[in-house]
Amino acid sequence: MEDYCYYLPITETGFFSAIAMDYVTEKPAIRPFYEHSVSLDGIKAAIAARQKTKNHRTVLQAALLEQYSQTTLTEVQQKNLNALLLDNTFTITTAHQPNIFTGPLYFIYKIIHAIQQAQFLQQQLPEYNFVPFYYMGSEDADLEELGNITLQGKKLTWLTNQTGAVGRMKVDKLFLSLIEEIKGQINVLPYGEQLSHLFANAYTLGKTIQQATFELVNNLFADFGLLILIPDNAALKKVFEPVVEKELLEQFSHNAIASTIKALQEHYPIQTQGRSINLFYLTDTYRERIEWDAALEKFVVKNTQLQFTKTEMLNELRQYPERFSGNVILRGLFQETILPNIMFIGGGGELAYWLELKNVFAAAAIPYPVLLLRNSFVIADSNSLKQWKQMQFTIADLFKPILTLQQNYVLKHSNYNVLLDSEIKALNEVYEQMRQHAVKADATLEKHVLALQHKAVEKINVLQKKIIKAEKRKHEIEMHRLERIKNALFPNNHLQERVENFSVLYAHYGPNLLHSILKASKQFGQKMGVIELS
After folding, report:
1. What is the DSSP string of 237-305?
2. Which residues are CB-contacts of 157 (< 8 A; sequence separation ≥ 6)?
3. CA dist 52 to 3, 87, 243, 367, 440, Å?
4. CB-based contacts of 454: which residues, under 8 Å, 6+ apart?
5. How far apart are the first and last CA of the chain?
6. Alpha-carbon dihedral angle through residues 100, 505, 513, 521, given to the nearest 10 degrees
7. Average pLDDT estimate for 314-326
8. How far apart are the C-alpha atoms of 263 and 32, rounded to whole Å?
9. pTM, to two decimals
10. What is the pLDDT of residue 274?
11. CA pair distance 398, 488, nearest whole angstrom
12. pLDDT tens track for 180-232
């Protein structure tokens, strides 16, 4: 399979938030909200900060050995696992919830970016070891977001009645029916049956979603040396116990984030405000907020009958640390506590809330990593891009609206000038002369002339649209081809990576798809890539 990647700055795509673009272009307004630059110097600074901090390498490796106990490690995975005990080993981490069947394409891009960065930094800084990690956000309870995928525009949804953390939910018969639906779409493709087997082997009846996701992702990326961490683990949470206690007794994160939000919202929309206590109480069937009730002088767990005095809550934490789950404000602190991490890779939304957390990390005395905006790609087949170029469009044109592209095509390929700009200009000149005559007679007539002018220009614009529409009909084949390519790569005017699952592409190209994406990931990335596959 031959492939090629075209790159564009994200600022030229129209699909990224202001905060993401300003971060990538290093605007001065955003500099106070992060610790390290995206550079080798930034990496070295993050390593230096991490070396000054207590790392929990033995606990981490023990948890991983337990999680991989039923899995055969590849040689590179075993090497990475052993290296975690060394003081010169650091992790490159991306995090995501256990979306069923991996969810949208960008799930795959994030993981491959972590792999690419570990390989890149290993070349640049050979005196250290860099291990790529996928940190599974398995405690997320938003099944509406995590329980569906889209294949070629068709949305498949897991209609289970289970509640609580999605990672702890179990594969049921309704889930297995989704695998059958997926088979119907992909098994006719060259690698469809291979992928169907991966799904069927990972998602078996009664298995938890976090374990199934672990097995699926491991089957896809074990050869790349990726390690997967399920942080829903009592031993790992025991390490985080001091931060949880500080949050319960002092509500430190809310206080630490307040000034940052005030300063940040002068320039950007705020991603999350957090709460006075940014913790959930987690069981197998629910994940509910912990709040302090001043009137009762007790901690209460919302939507339950559970109440704890301060002493009782701290005893609960000592005995059952696995029952405490941080929300978006504390999740990153837990990750950076249990991993010797120096770089976090995330999307624009993740970047936005991490930029709120610098003071929270400082208050907890936890090192703040280098933040890297994940790679973004559009994946297109060679035939589609060949047709696109034959219509005399550029790769950058892919990101323009369909109506704009259609109009540009008509303007370029019509035998005459379909725009009435000169006529409108002449019309405005005539009305300007009439306005000058009218105001000499009566100044109040000016508004009347301007109203007539507006109506006249409006009618000419309507006529121009009809001319363009008529001209489009002469190029009907090209208009349909343009729409087909745009709708395939930008479904419902969204980036492909935010809608489509990887299954159909993998069924077409097989494991080489992952290698092509890795090959297209360059250095620190932070650009938009258009990958051409044949």
Report:
1. HHHTHHHHHHHHHH-HHHHHHHHHHHHHTTTS--S----SS-EEEE-SS-EEEEEEETTTTEEEETTSS
2. 147, 148
3. 44, 11, 18, 9, 82
4. none
5. 6
6. -80
7. 97
8. 10
9. 0.89
10. 83
11. 11
12. 999 999 999 999 999 999 999 999 999 999 999 999 999 999 999 999 999 99
| E strand or H helix at 314 | helix 310-319
Give bridge partners of residue 489 from the DSSP assignment: none
Token pair recorded at residue 268: 């950007």
pLDDT on residue 15: 95
Q: What is the DSSP letter of 138?
A: T
- Record the tokens describing residue 487, joined without a space: 């709708």
| CA 526 to chain CA mean position, Å | 13
Q: Which residue has the higher pLDDT, 141 or 273?
A: 141
Residue 294 has pLDDT above 90, yes or no: yes
Torsion of CA 510, 515, 519, 520, to 10 degrees: 40
Question: Which pLDDT tens digit goes with each residue over 43-64?
Answer: 999 999 999 998 999 999 999 9
Confidence (pLDDT) at 1 = 47
- Return d(Cα 156, Cα 216) in angstroms, integer: 18
Largest CA distance in the chain: 94
Percent of the chain with pLDDT over 90: 80
**What does the pLDDT average to over 366-384?**
96
Which amino acid makes up residue 275?
Answer: R
Burial class, 183, CB count within 10 angstroms (exposed 0-12 / middle 13-18 / buried 19+): middle
Sort residue 413 into left (φ over 0), alpha (ψ -120 to 50) or beta.
alpha
Show the tokens assigned to 173.
């018969």
Q: In this structure, what are the phi and psi dihedrals at residue 456, rounded to the nearest 5 degrees?
A: -65, -45
Taking phi first (over 0 means left), then psi (-120 to 50 degrees means alpha), and beta for anything else, what does residue 441 get? alpha
- Between the CA of residue 213 and those of 73, 97, 203, 294, 386, what are the distances in Å? 16, 9, 8, 41, 37
Residue 3: the pLDDT is: 67
